[in-house]
């Protein structure tokens, strides 16, 4: 459909098969409905819920003003003495700038100079520039003074859309919405999208962008508006792998939790590390205090620093269950040191003591 769909945007209905009589009708976008993935559009005599692909954004006043600004810029750059008209010499230099020789001056001047005073004023120049040599083709403005375009971004081989647990890029958002980002898209817009998507993974990206536009790109308001729709919310806990200077895992650990048992969890579906950390998941089993177990991988949460260990539980063929190891309590080293300097033997936790490595 092109352009930006937001409350108040004027659109034209196109491509409808079931109600062909509404094709070509103009209306105003009222709201986005995330449950149906449709935009509510107020037509002259009714309110319709339409798919975005059936809406063509009408040319906005902003676009018209931008075009007129380009015409004025071309005219002013040719009007060397600033008297508001182009004489023969100024017009000749104007045509030279677009690669046309002197032989075109008379023909072009006759086409523009409607009052035959041998001078071209702004109104005459504008009427000519916005016209076209061939009906349905580019205007003379776009033909002779094309708008500068940014170099196209190179698309790599991987043109897939990230999964729900992967962060989106602005290019991903454009691809999902099938339209450009809003003109007033802020620098922190991608952060709001990814933070909102982490909390509401089933909520459509187009609906998130709609809400952002509707709430002046204030992240807290976006979360509140989407929460009010009843969308399912999860509490994300972003994690990164915990590494060391050598082979750190698998390794044997012993339960030293002050709370006694370590709860064993199986993560699936919408279950998150944050829910495991906060004990909001039903445990699969327990590891009694003092018992030893093997850890195959450790992930550390970005928010509070809690660490999660992947283990085998009760005859599992592959390690696919998790325990909360607690906070990293390194022995003999600074807890904030980079991974490249951390020794595997120092990887012990508040709820699990490292015994030895299996390597």
Q: Please, could you describe this protein's structure?
A:
There is one protein chain. The protein is of the alpha+beta class and 359 residues long. 26% of the residues lie in helices and 20% in strands. It has 10 helices and 15 strands. Strands 8, 9, 10, 11, 12, 13, 14 and 15 form an 8-stranded antiparallel sheet that branches. Helix 7 crosses helix 8. The protein is elongated.
Give a brief description.
By secondary structure, this protein is of the alpha+beta class. It has ten helices and 15 strands. The strands form three sheets. Strands 8, 9, 10, 11, 12, 13, 14 and 15 form an eight-stranded antiparallel sheet that branches. Strands 4-3-2-1-5 form a five-stranded antiparallel sheet. It has a two-stranded antiparallel sheet with strand order 6-7.
Taking the alpha carbons of the first and last residues, their distance comes to 58 Å
Report the order of strands and helices: EEEEEHEHHEHHHHHHEEEHEEEEE
**How many β-strand runs?**
15
| Uncertain spans | 154-159
State the major sheet.
8 strands, antiparallel
As an assembly, this protein is: single chain
Helix content: 25-40%
As a percent range, the share of strand residues is 15-25%
Shape: elongated
The pLDDT mean sits at: 78
Q: Look at the helices and sheets and give the structural class.
A: alpha+beta
Number of contiguous helices: 10
What is the CA-based Rg, rounded? 32 Å
């Amino acid at each position: 459909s092109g352009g930006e769909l937001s409350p108040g945007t004027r659109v034209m209905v196109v491509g409808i098969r079931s109600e062909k009589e509404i094709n070509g009708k103009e209306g105003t976008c009222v709201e986005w409905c995330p449950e149906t993935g449709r935009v509510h559009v107020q037509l002259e005599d009714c309110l319709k819920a339409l798919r975005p692909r059936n809406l063509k954004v009408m040319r906005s006043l902003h676009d018209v003003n931008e075009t007129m600004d380009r015409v004025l810029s071309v005219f002013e750059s040719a009007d060397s003495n600033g008297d508001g008209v182009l004489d023969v010499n100024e017009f000749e230099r104007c045509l030279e700038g677009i690669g046309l020789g002197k032989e075109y001056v008379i023909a072009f001047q006759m086409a523009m100079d409607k009052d035959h005073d041998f001078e071209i004023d702004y109104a005459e120049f504008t009427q000519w520039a916005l016209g076209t040599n061939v009906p349905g083709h580019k205007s003379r403005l776009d033909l002779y003074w094309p708008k500068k375009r940014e170099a196209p971004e190179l698309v790599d081989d991987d043109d897939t859309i990230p999964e729900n647990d992967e962060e989106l890029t602005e290019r991903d958002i454009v691809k999902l919405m099938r339209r450009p980002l809003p003109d007033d898209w802020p620098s922190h817009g991608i952060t709001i999208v990814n933070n909102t998507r982490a909390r509401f993974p089933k909520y459509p990206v187009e609906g998130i962008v709609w809400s952002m536009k509707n709430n002046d790109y204030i992240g807290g308001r976006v979360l509140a508006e989407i929460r009010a729709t009843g969308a399912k919310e999860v509490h994300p806990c972003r994690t990164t792998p915990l590494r060391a200077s050598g082979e750190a895992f698998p390794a044997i650990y012993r339960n030293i939790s002050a709370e006694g048992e370590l709860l064993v969890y199986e993560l699936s579906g919408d279950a998150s590390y944050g829910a495991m950390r906060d004990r909001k998941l039903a445990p699969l089993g327990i590891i009694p205090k003092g018992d030893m177990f093997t850890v195959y991988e450790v992930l550390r949460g970005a928010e509070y620093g809690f660490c999660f260990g992947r283990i085998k539980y009760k005859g599992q063929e592959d390690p696919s269950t998790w325990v909360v190891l607690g906070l990293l309590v390194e022995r003999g080293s600074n807890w904030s040191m980079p991974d490249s300097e951390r020794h595997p033997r120092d990887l012990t936790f508040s709820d699990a003591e490292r015994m030895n490595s299996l390597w």
